[in-house]
Amino acid sequence: MNVLGIETSCDETGVAIYNSEKHEIIAQALYSQVELHAEYGGVVPELASRDHIRKTALLTEQVLRQANLNQKDISAVAFTQGPGLIGALLVGSTFARSLAYSWGCPAVAVHHMEGHLLAPMLEDEKPDFPFVALLVSGGHSMLVDVKAFGDYEILGESIDDAAGEAFDKTAKLMDLGYPGGPRLARLAEQGRPGVYKFPRPMTDRPGLEFSFSGLKTFAANTLHKCDKSEQALADIAYAFQEAVVDTLMIKCRRALEQTGRKQLVIAGGVSANIKLREQLAELMTKLGGKVFYPRPEFCTDNGAMIAYAGYQRFSRGDSESLAIEARPRWPMDELNAS
Ligand code: KG4
Ligand code: ZN
Questions:
Q1: How far apart are the CA of 73 and the centre of ligand 1, in A?
Q2: What is the number of the ligand 1 atom nearest to the C-alpha of 140?
């Protein structure tokens, strides 16, 4: 069966087709709105919605052509129902439901974070349930005990900024532009270890909650006191990234100890961070376990993860009425296995 997936929750329009017999994404297209938002230094929700309107149908035609399929070959249309920007979500939701209606097939609502969580299943090396997942994106940071498909217990979340948000805000302070996360990570490669030492927030007490907003303030103060040279900026980027990665590592280790799981999945935009991937791989080797992550293009928002999660939901009997609905806030532990 072929499932079409449509992602429009933030600033990327992603469309893809998952084929269940091949267990493969057979076509995909992604349009990033980065240039549109760059001059504002962040995502402008209304502009995002309007751009999704311009791109969603075009990308859908493109993936059908790429896969050499037509509407009859599509068994279901999956779309991101939430969480995300309400206007952007409504574009995907309205488009997907209308398409499903006109094609005479079901529409399937997908939780964006479940999409991220399942993305590593598209790789050759994939985890088996149960496992611990570290989900780190621009809007969320959480540790989840994934007992089975749809059975998610949130072990800890960020009480303020998400990890990606902290990267983006710190990058903005350093005038690195938007989107800041990957740029800050690139600058950190030129940084020297040991020049600055940032705190590891909330690691000195038990629990699996995160807090990243203090790191941004620490970066602002450090920046204020330094000589603003290229090297100093790189050293700050290095220390900031090291602190985020270290903090995530400490919490992952705790979550694995607490649950007794031996497999760790990392997903969401920040899981594209090379330092984080390396350090977590090292940690898991030390602990006699294994780490799994999506290929870099499936770490950040994309249609493939929505097509795959949509297939999983649809094959368990999920489908939507044609009423248009979007959920800008949607706790993931409300999901069940259907
Ligand atoms: O999952 P995603 O594409 O969108 C959301 O669902 O939020 O994540 C985007 C976030 C942004 O905050 C971006 O700066 C961050 O992921 N990000 C990175 C890297 N690549 C993307 N952060 C650190 N290092 C990276 N290489
Ligand atoms: Zn995302």
A1: 33
A2: 7
Whether residue 156 has its Cβ less than 6 Å from ligand 1: no
Mean pLDDT over 329-335 rounds to 91
What's the whole-model pTM score? 0.94
Q: Which residues pair with 134 in a beta bridge?
A: 143, 266
Q: How far is CA 114 from the centre of its chain?
A: 9
Based on the fold, state whether residues 201 and 287 are members of the same structural domain: yes
pLDDT of residue 150: 96
**DSSP result, 11-78:** SEEEEEEEETTTTEEEEEEEEE-HHHHHTTTS--HHHHHHHHHHHHHHHHHHHHHHHT--GGGEEEEE
328: confidence class by pLDDT, cuts 50, 70, 90: confident
What confidence tens digit (pLDDT) does each residue in 42-72 have? Answer: 999 999 999 999 999 999 999 999 999 999 9
pLDDT in tens, 248-302: 999 999 999 999 999 999 999 999 999 999 999 999 999 999 999 999 999 999 9
Beta bridge partner(s), residue 111: 82
143 lies in the same domain as 103: no
Q: How many residues does the chain have?
A: 338
Residue with tokens 């760059």: 38
Whose atoms come closest to the Cα of 300: which ligand?
A: 1
Phi/psi at 242 (nearest 5 deg)?
A: -60, -40
305 and 206 part of one domain:
no
Whether residue 270 has its Cβ less than 6 Å from ligand 1:
yes
The reply to whether ligand 1 has any atom less than 6 angstroms from the CB of 294 is no
Q: In what order do the strands lie in the sheet with 263-267?
A: 151-157, 141-148, 131-136, 263-267, 290-292
In a shared domain, residues 304 and 275:
no
E strand or H helix that includes residue 252: helix 230-259
Q: What CATH number is attached to the domain comprising 205?
A: 3.30.420.40
